[in-house]
Design a protein that fits this description.
binds 3-[3-(1H-pyrrolo[2,3-b]pyridin-5-yl)phenyl]propanoic acid, alpha+beta, Heat Shock Protein 90, Ribosomal Protein S5, domain 2, 20% strand, 41% helix, Rossmann fold, five-stranded mixed β-sheet, elongated, 20 helices
Length: 633
Amino acid sequence: MESSSTYTAREIHVLEGLQAVRKRPGMYIGSTGARGLHHLVFEIVDNSVDEAVAGFCNNIIVVIHKDGSVSVTDDGRGIPIDKHPVYKTSALEIVMTKLHAGGKFDAKAYKVSGGLHGVGASVVNALSKRLIAEVKRDGKVYRQEYEYGKPVSKLHIANVQFPFKSGTRIRFWPDDTIFDTVEFYYDIIASRLKELAFLNSGLKIKIIDERTGDKEEFVYEGGIREFVKFLNESKEPVFDDIIYISKVKGKIVVEVAMQYTKGYSEEVLSFVNNINTEEGGTHLAGFKNALTRAINKYAIEINAIKNGEKFTGNDVREGLTAVINVKVPEPQFEGQTKTKLGNEEVKGIVDSVVYSELLVFFEENPHVAKLIVEKAINAARAREAAKKAKELIRRKNALEVSSLPGKLADCSESDPEKAELYIVEGDSAGGSAKQGRNREFQAILPLRGKIINVEKANINKVLRNEEIQAMITAIGTGIGEFFDIKKARYRKIIIMTDADVDGSHIKTLLLTFFYRYMRPLIENGYVFISKPPLYRIRKGNNDYYVYSDAEKEELLKKIGGNAIVQRFKGLGEMNPEQLWATTMDPQRRIIVEATITDAMEAERVFNTLMGVKVEPRREFIERYAKKARNIDI
Ligand code: 0RA
């Protein structure tokens, strides 16, 4: 604690406050780097902007001096210089030396900033080796000087020039023992001043760099409308109008300006009390919500989209440039950099204001509204297309990169033109086929018959069936809109099932599947049905297999009457050699190309098996048949 007896208790308290700022400057200005250094300028400028927001200031002049100082001059009312009855000090001195001036002594009671921002002039004073505060009121200029936050002079009338009838001028020399650098950058200061000029329409802000002679003046009568125009300077707008919303709801002021560009990127800046809320927050959430709702509402109203369809937030913000500027009396700043507005009540207010005002604008400007809806439709389409492309890549990966199914016994032939795939019903027949095949060009994929219960499996279930997925992978073409016949791994796909009810069900299901998901495979003659023999005829130690009744009669004549004729039951009855001889040897086997008619018939049978209701379908067909006739007339 300060022990010098010359200080009153109050003064000790004040010194302690500013001592804390010098001890831990990062706590008050974020950093002691270039950013923190420039923060000092913005703190002082903010005070002048607040005076402008209060309606008493129209001009701010910022000068970067050659001696390393910066001065900020405004034409406001001037910080009060009269002595406070209790403190017996001027309000100016309290403002300059008291940390977080509050209560009824708060000279900035109307100030709406918060968080790291607006910590005030006393922090700047504490971190400056020298500071001069000047106030012009009643035709006189009052002046007080400080060093390291402490007054080194009394408040006195000085004989100096002041550019306005009234106002405040603060000039400070940052403490080079605190900051890593004390060199001010014109561009950093100028861009923030420009931003402030956009955010406070009509406020004239000048910057002069005496080191270089650079100077600029920022004043925008159009405010954030001109901000949006500026942001879109190098972009191509969809329409010339800048949509502008301005409403006061209780103590909250909502202002929005927006315009769409032909580009795809989104540039939405949001501000609370002139602070750029880089992390967004409730005001931004309210705006986004309202924009999406309003555009959807209008699009449905003009029948541009159906009621069930909806644009997403991203759809309606594609190519959007917007500035959201709200004023909130007691802002809660959250987030990593304290630039996220947390006040929940702001969300609903911004949402309802923007929603209703946008709909009014759309009604009054249908031409512009239509362009916005069109833009959103295009964005939605692009989103769908991108999603499909992604899906395609995902599936391609699944089909091409993923290894072939374990159940598949592939052939060694790499030329698909010469390769065949046997899809075989049942594991036992599959086993025989694997042994009996010519492994050079014949691949075998056994399907477990029971898994695919045609009566119960709808086609979507079939798609999810592991065996069917193995088949898709083995064939390699992909399915549906992603089907590519050039990727077929086999020129012949041969369905080999037993000649019984189960076998015919599986055949029906496979044909239906090919018809719905790999139709070109059928159209191009890639799919075949294997015809196993109808009879087995045994004479002595010899087995004969025949494929038709006529063939049977002919054979029996040839080999004599005491042969045993057996209706052939299943593929599983044959050993590998027999299977090769009867069903797989290209010289002897019978395979029939599946036609589209076959596949259509299979689908019909499949639907019947599935018990698809006939009535609604007939009604549907009759209704549309009638409609079609009417159109003909
Ligand atoms: C409180 C009251 C009055 C002015 C100010 C603050 C004020 C503060 C700053 C800081 C930078 N520039 C400023 N300009 C004004 C007005 C008191 C009155 O005259 O009624």
